[in-house]
Design a protein that fits this description.
Layout (H helix, E strand, L loop, with lengths): L22 H32 L1 H12 L1 H28 L6 H29 L1
Helix pairs in contact: 1-2, 1-3, 3-4
Amino acid sequence: MSQTPGSAQRPLSPHLQIYRPMLTMTMSIVHRITGCALYFGTFLLVAFLVATAISPRAYETASWLAGSIVGKLVMFGYTWALIHHMLGGIRHFIWDTGAGFGAVARERLAQFTIGGSVVLTIVLWAAILLVK
């Protein structure tokens, strides 16, 4: 690409050192992270289901592990990742319709995704613990 005299030298592909971090940028990164976390969590879910099919002893072991503090923390994180990823998908679906591209709408959708995922996770876990 030829430069005209006096033109500024700009990077061809601006990256993080050029852009000011924004909430929607962070949400994009978190959406990818939660997608990866869901792969791990789904593997654990399948391992639990396989343990139930293998034998009563394997089920008891898997059940004990899932009922431990670490197991509950992993399940809580999996629940949050699932809900957060789902709400992020809904946000992208809204964008696919052509809506929500304004600066205020983008910010509100990102805030809704964060707040909604936290609130829905807490409400779901409260309901689960109250039923027990």
